[in-house]
Description:
The structure holds 2 protein chains of 2 kinds.
Chain A: H1 3-24, H2 27-46, H3 54-73, H4 80-91, H5 97-113, H6 116-127, H7 132-139, H8 143-165
Helix pairs in contact in A: 1-2, 1-3, 2-3, 5-8
Chain B: H1 4-14, H2 20-31, H3 34-84, H4 88-113, H5 123-153, E1 155-158, E2 161-164, H6 165-175, H7 196-201, H8 211-223, H9 250-259, H10 264-279, H11 316-333, H12 344-356, H13 368-385, H14 388-403, H15 422-437, H16 445-455, H17 458-462, H18 464-470, H19 489-501, H20 509-519, H21 530-543, H22 545-562, H23 583-599, H24 601-604, H25 607-610
Antiparallel strand pairs in B: 1-2
Helix pairs in contact in B: 1-3, 3-5, 4-5, 5-6, 10-23, 11-12, 11-13, 11-23, 13-14, 13-15, 14-15, 15-16, 15-19, 16-19, 18-20, 19-20, 19-21, 20-21, 21-22, 21-23
Amino acid sequence: MSKNLMKELLKHRRELFGLIRAMVHSSSDADDIFQEVALVVMEKEEQGEEIRNFRAWSFEIARRKMHEFFRREKERIPSPEMESLIANIYTQYSPSDHRQDDEREALRVCMGKLKKKHRDLIKMRFVEDMSYKDISTETRKSGQALRKALSRIRQSLASCIERVLGLSGTGV
Amino acid sequence: MADRSIVHDMFAYLDGGLSREEEQDLAVHIRNDDKARQLYGRLIRMHGNVPDIITDIETSLAVREAEGRGQTVSRILSAAVQILSLPRAAMSSLSGALIRGLIVLRHIIPSVKEGKLDIRNPSWWAVSAAVHAIILAAAGMYMIFTAETGNEQAVVRVGFQTVKTGEYARQNVYGLRSTSFSMPDQPPRIMVQETGLEDILEFKTPEDISREYISEVLRSSLLGEDLNIEDLFIPVPRVTFKTVFQTRFGTGRRTALSHYGGSGATESAVMAALRWFSRHQAPDGSWSFSEYTHQCKKNIPCRATGAYAAHGGLDEQTMTNCATGCALLCFLGAGQTDRTGQFRKQVANGIRYLEAGRKKDGSFAQNNYVHAICTMAAAEYYGITGSSRFRGIAQKAVDIIIDRQTKMGGWDYKKPKNRSDTSITGWQIMALKSAQLSGLDIKDAFSKVGKYMDRVTPGLLKSSVELVLKDHVAYACTEKRLDTARNNPRLTAVGCMVRAFAGGDPGSPLLRAHGNMLLKELPSVRKTDYYLAYYGTLAMFSLGGKYWEQWNRSIKDVILKKQIREGCADGSWDPFEAGKYGSVRAGRVFTTAMACLSLETYYRYPPVSINNR
């Protein structure tokens, strides 16, 4: 029984990380919070706790850890509406694992098609958490142009994923 | 059909760029629209997947590039081999042509000089033939030559291991005289072994330990059956410091943690301790041994049992510097800096205080204990962040430590007199080790300290064989009172740590005798000596093997059990009764620092670098 919590977390780790990232708007902060969540899960597992609804349970842990983080960093907490929306997406409307694997593969394909300079922009903003200001100093682009470029790259990624997944009716 | 402006707002929210009202509106809107909700979910997952996938793509691109370069080298190589394997006759006719051409030229040059050369003169054709022969021969030589130099320079980065194709190639070129030579189809890949961590940690330069290499290990461990702690974490590239303290961060830390016997429980104890420190930091960024209770905010304040009975003759500023140094060491040890982690503000303020608290001569205190602790923090801060301002500060402090070393090789409480103190020497060596790892200049301090350590081990002077056989290594407090060398495990731990840090071989009989003696002094819950725990942990960690295994098992158990879990003291450790050795004087702050640093040992130092002079 005790292996299950860890296994479950391992299975959901990307998804959970994604929603934490969405709410704290930063990959490295999300990573820190995710670590804390993982520690709690490990402890609970050591205590042999049994959890019926892992998604709901893990979301609650993540939510608390996020709120601790917001308090600590004096960041604005997300609105309850947004929080419950994201909770719903994770607990009720999440696609199957299989489907999520497809999504990830699609992202890999689409990201591979990006030009290097565009991939670098994405990397600076979403992996290294650089601010728009820092990126614009580094790339010598104006802040405005940068926002536009990043928004366009993300849109093209999103629509590329839809095309690869055969969802192109939605159109982004 | 998702509306363009909604998509725009979704991106804006994920960037943190929406006001609270806009955020609410967006959430309500998405909730009521199935398609939008699906899209939003996809976008959230996409943003979450980006770090992983970018790392993947860049890794595979790097490998492909390396393979490409490998092929170029192989083409040059086969050209070289073909030339080398030309029939001997052809080779000799090439060089023959070269020589003959030169002879003809030499014959003709005088007539050119004398202006006798005429186009109708048949000797012009000889010139032409000679020049062509020379060019042909030179081209042949050139090809051989470039092929060889090409090999030697070509360094192909394959996977994460640098393979010098030059050596590869040279062996083959000289060892094999057939025309069918080519590079292997697949560039050699270094497989991660079962005990992969030694490979990771045994790096020559900080750059060698790249996070890609570690994530490769992670990925391969994900394929295995057993779940490890590190399996749970997504490798997210973040602000990375190219530092020898790489094991304190992210993936390196998790790998080290699980490899050296840490656990989720030890990590949450460390985090709780750091939170306790951050709650008890004074507004000016400092920590105080005596006045930390002023910061207690919760209903049940920290019990100040046994806290801070006396000054030990030190002034308030010195003690505050010391406490600040201790707390900063705990944060830095866990990879928490002013640029990474969850305690950025606390570390930034603490570092600022440390810097401002220096004396005019650049020292942190007259007292050598305090100066060493603060120097260690400054050196580690420099080593991790590479801050150029701190390079100067830390180097100055290190110079002062070296300046205060006695002729005998040890250190005393204050400026060198003609006596040294074993326990103080221990702190200097720890500070110098951090300085050395950070790339600061520590001169020959380590070789000098060996002499002092031998001096205060009277047993060693009598008969080292006896000492090793009996597993009893006793150190004296000072070389002036060798009679104090009795059964004092704390000093044995100091001695072992100093010898190991200063380059002693952990496999040597002498150090193993230290280890055997300490194994008889395993920490106990009933009477915990945190000072011994900290020194002993460093000593046993550097000995490794069974010593570390047994010691770690009991130290982990004891320290975790004794951590306070409630009230304002949550995360700290109660001061322990241990006579006059620092802790009673220093109370809760010092005890907590010692316990917390002991639990950080798994990743504070890369173990191979400890014995590396």
